[in-house]
User: Which sequence fits this backbone?
């Protein structure tokens, strides 16, 4: 087994649901040692969200939780109690990085501001992932994934290519934007850690989910100050609308540059309804005529997604098939790259999980353990790491601290 | 002044469009120096057009889109197809800690600039290759743009109205690859700091997007369920939608995830009679009667501006946020106070604005230090000062059309 990129990096996670846990999962998959603090009682909110194995709700069998918490150790702790607070601070002394997602007010009430925590651990890196950041008029506002998509400008552009504005703007599929906010925070967290390796200096990262999601749409957003154009989901000069139905689903032709367009026309068999780019120019490739689209739909209707996807790509035409989760999990390409890997979990059994979207030649991503059961590592962490006795643990459990 | 978390790190970029250039830009926000290598035969297309917005630009230095994705960089112009160019490019790699490239797998090798070739001159290089499908597997040579990755990842299939076609997103899909790449590069920098070892990182843009909907795959693995589109709605919670509010194309998103929030919502909208109907009395019933519930919620939202609705509901502890346009965001009080953007003067474009990196970092704030480079703007500095070539050597390469 190869070495691990973040071997020995100690992360304390005080977060739940998606963004914070995804941020620390990215570190854990590269070898960081993550201790996840879950609240006493129900634990992470993701445990109460599906998908559940066999559709039977069970906090140890939530697919969302299992995916987001691979490679972490899990403890339960209530830092609002005096002893819980003491233990939290002991763990903080152990940690290089704290990843937290609590409302700013809650952290202040607990006395867990960066200013206070750095007294305990001067080189601490603290990453705070909240809907609107630590400052500004909305800092105490709530936003779930849905609100995040819309509040960051992405929703307003979705679905692009709409024929009119009669229908409501949409979020991205699944819990997409919550994940993307966690990804963004992970970049700043690692950059701060690199800087600490060089300088010994820690810092506080204020990661506003809204700002993170806005960043991905920076080109659309910055069009306003730069051109005055208000972008919407209305059909127009944009990538939206290229989606074409074929026999068994949809394909996405993206022959946007001249030579690609010409290759596309070749792929279509040089029909008399398809002109090459030299006579149509870039604008036409961005926005094909209605007549062309009508002929194209007819041409596609007798062909399968696979046929069109592989056939076009063989001629170097950028083309995609709109893949379902089943298509993706059975994709020969994903299989060849090993993107899905089987992991055994004591409650959920053996399942295929998506893993990292990158391959490191020296330090491959690792799967060392499945997601923790609720409080699974209490003894290991409290006794072996912090030196509490078994008797202490029993008494702390009784007191509702762990 | 602090020069950033990655101060002292040098990156050489052989990249076009959005994925590779923005990968490197993220590193510049954090203080790294980036040398962008362009070729007159193959300019970064963002200098001339944006496929996402449909904008086209005259000349090579007019593009606000290029500016947005290439801030803080230095730029040299080298004809990489010329036999003498590989040597010069290797010199740049030798002087760099990181190499970023997003060409189709095989292209860099053909140019003599593959990982193995670069490792010979710079053994501890961190070499990032980012491509549509990754650099191995049967589809390694396939190409694509941002929406292709959304389509191939599984995201497009689950994005859209329940009764409409899938939606494959747009340019932002690329910037998610960039962000993932930047994360991987910094992890490799940490490993190199500790061990002295560099490495190759091979990223797949479609896998990047799949990783961001992991739970959807878990549903298939656990239950054989193939999820599809359902608009703004949630599996369990209701109300959970984007509702029309007062004004032209104005909307407010509202998500209620428990009984406390429901009660707060009911109070905040003034306890209308319908909220007391039996069919809305618990979360299960509300989900079951979601169509009707959404219609009734809209009757309240339509009488308020989206900002009024946010104020009223957030004060009550309900997650309600408008669906904001680019114009509204730039005029939003919270946006203004957070100050995430910066205005700068570009020598050709004039005044122009771009977002900075999205985080506030207390010790090493991310920075926009300068506008994007003009084409070949730093040829003299890079070839002369950094690589130590004499004016005669540079001139000879210019005469041979290796350097422009």
Assistant:
């Amino acid at each position: 087994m190869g070495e691990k990129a973040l071997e020995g990096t100690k992360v304390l996670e005080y977060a739940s649901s998606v963004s914070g846990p995804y941020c620390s999962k990215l570190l854990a998959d590269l070898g960081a040692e993550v201790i996840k603090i879950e609240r006493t009682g129900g634990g992470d909110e993701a445990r109460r969200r599906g998908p559940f194995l066999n559709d039977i709700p069970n906090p140890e069998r939530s697919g969302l939780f299992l995916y987001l918490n691979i490679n972490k150790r899990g403890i339960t702790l209530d830092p609002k109690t005096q002893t819980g607070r003491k233990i939290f601070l002991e763990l903080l002394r152990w940690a290089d990085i704290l990843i937290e997602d609590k409302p700013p007010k809650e952290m202040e009430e607990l006395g867990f501001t960066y200013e206070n925590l750095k007294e305990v651990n001067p080189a601490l890196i603290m990453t705070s992932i909240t809907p609107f950041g630590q400052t500004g008029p909305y800092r105490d506002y709530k936003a779930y994934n849905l609100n995040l998509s819309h509040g960051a400008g992405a929703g307003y552009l979705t679905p692009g290519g709409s024929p009119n504005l009669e229908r409501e703007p949409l979020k991205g599929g699944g819990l997409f934007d919550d994940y993307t906010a966690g990804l963004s925070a992970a970049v700043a967290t690692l950059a701060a850690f690199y800087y600490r390796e060089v300088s010994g200096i820690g810092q506080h990262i204020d990661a506003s989910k809204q700002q993170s999601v806005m960043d991905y749409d920076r080109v659309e957003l910055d069009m306003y100050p730069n051109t005055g154009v208000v972008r919407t989901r209305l059909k127009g000069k944009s990538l939206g609308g290229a989606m074409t139905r074929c026999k068994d689903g949809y394909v996405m032709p993206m022959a946007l540059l001249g030579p690609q367009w010409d290759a596309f026309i070749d792929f279509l068999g040089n029909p008399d309804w398809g002109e090459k780019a030299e006579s149509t120019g870039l604008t036409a490739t961005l926005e094909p005529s209605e007549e062309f689209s009508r002929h194209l739909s007819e041409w596609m209707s007798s062909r399968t997604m696979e046929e069109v996807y592989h056939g076009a790509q063989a001629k170097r035409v950028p083309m995609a098939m709109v893949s379902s989760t089943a298509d993706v999990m059975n994709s020969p390409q994903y299989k060849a790259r090993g993107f899905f890997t089987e992991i055994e979990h004591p409650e959920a059994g053996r399942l295929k999980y998506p893993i990292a979207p990158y391959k490191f030649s020296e330090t491959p991503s690792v799967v060392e353990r499945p997601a923790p059961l609720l409080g699974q590592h209490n003894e290991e962490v409290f006794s072996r790491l912090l030196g509490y006795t078994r008797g202490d643990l029993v008494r702390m459990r009784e007191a509702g601290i762990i | 002044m602090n020069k950033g978390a990655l101060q002292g790190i040098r990156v050489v970029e052989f990249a076009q469009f959005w994925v590779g250039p923005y990968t490197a830009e993220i590193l510049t926000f954090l203080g790294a120096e980036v040398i962008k290598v362009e070729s007159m035969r193959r300019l970064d297309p963002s200098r001339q057009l944006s496929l996402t917005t449909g904008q086209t630009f005259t000349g090579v230095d007019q593009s606000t889109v290029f500016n947005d994705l290439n801030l803080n960089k230095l730029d040299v112009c080298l004809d990489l197809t010329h036999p003498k160019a590989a040597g010069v490019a290797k010199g740049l790699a030798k002087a760099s800690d990181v190499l970023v490239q997003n060409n189709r797998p095989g292209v860099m090798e053909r140019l003599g600039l593959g990982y193995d070739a670069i490792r010979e001159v710079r053994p501890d290089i961190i070499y990032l290759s980012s491509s549509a499908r990754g650099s191995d597997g049967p589809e390694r040579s396939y190409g694509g743009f941002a929406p292709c990755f959304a389509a191939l990842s599984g995201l497009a299939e689950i994005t859209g109205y329940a009764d409409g076609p899938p939606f494959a997103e747009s340019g932002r899909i690329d910037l998610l690859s960039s962000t993932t790449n930047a994360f991987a590069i910094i992890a490799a920098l940490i490993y190199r700091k500790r061990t002295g070892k560099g490495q190759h990182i091979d990223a797949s843009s479609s896998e990047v997007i799949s990783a961001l909907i992991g739970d959807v795959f878990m549903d298939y693995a656990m239950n054989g369920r193939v999820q599809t589109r359902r608009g703004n709605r949630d599996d369990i919670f209701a109300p959970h939608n984007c509702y029309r509010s007062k004004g032209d194309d104005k909307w407010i998103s509202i998500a209620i995830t428990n009984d406390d929030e429901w009660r707060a919502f009911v109070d905040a909208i003034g306890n209308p009679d319908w909220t007391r109907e039996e069919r809305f009395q618990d979360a299960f019933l509300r989900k079951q009667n979601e169509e009707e519930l959404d219609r009734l919620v809209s009757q309240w939202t339509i009488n308020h501006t989206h900002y009024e609705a946010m104020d009223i509901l957030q004060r009550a502890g309900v997650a309600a946020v408008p669906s904001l346009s680019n114009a509204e965001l730039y005029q939003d009080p919270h946006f203004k106070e957070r100050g995430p953007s910066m205005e700068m003067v570009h020598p050709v474009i004039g005044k122009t604005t771009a977002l900075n990196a999205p985080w506030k970092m207390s010790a090493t704030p991310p920075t926009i230090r300068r506008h994007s480079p003009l084409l070949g703007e730093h040829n003299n500095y890079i070839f002369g000062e950094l690589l130590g070539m004499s004016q005669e050597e540079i001139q000879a390469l210019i005469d041979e059309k290796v350097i422009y």
Remarks:
- Residues 176-199 of chain A form the longest helix (24 residues).
